[in-house]
Write the structure tokens for this entry.
Amino acid sequence: QVQLLESGGGLVQAGGSLRLSCAASGTIFMVNVMGWYRQPPGKQRELVASISGGGELYYADSVKGRFTISRDNAKNTVYLQMNSLKPEDTAVYYCNAAITPVQGSSLLYRYWGQGTQVTVSS
């Protein structure tokens, strides 16, 4: 079994910063792509940023220049540094990871964290 444990959400004023963390634990051989999604109230979940095992980055247009995704492969952890936060960034943020559980397997499983609330006040 694999678990993704998120931390770092909270309430912040517009213009402020928050840093989210997500640590994967359990039966893990390799963690491939890791990413952050968010789901604003009444809207669909959307991809915010992702980082591949080789460090390839993706950012949604709405967060480019403000958010930075990074990872620590030794700790199976992904981070999301969020600066210059706006009220429209308010959402539940979910960590996602594509994981190969055992060596020699070609199977890739996607896991989700439980979500962490980020609220940006104006």
Q: What stands out?
A: The first strand starts at residue 2 and ends at 7. The two ends are 40 Å apart (CA to CA). The chain has a mean pLDDT of 96. Residues 86 and 92 are 14 Å apart (CA to CA).
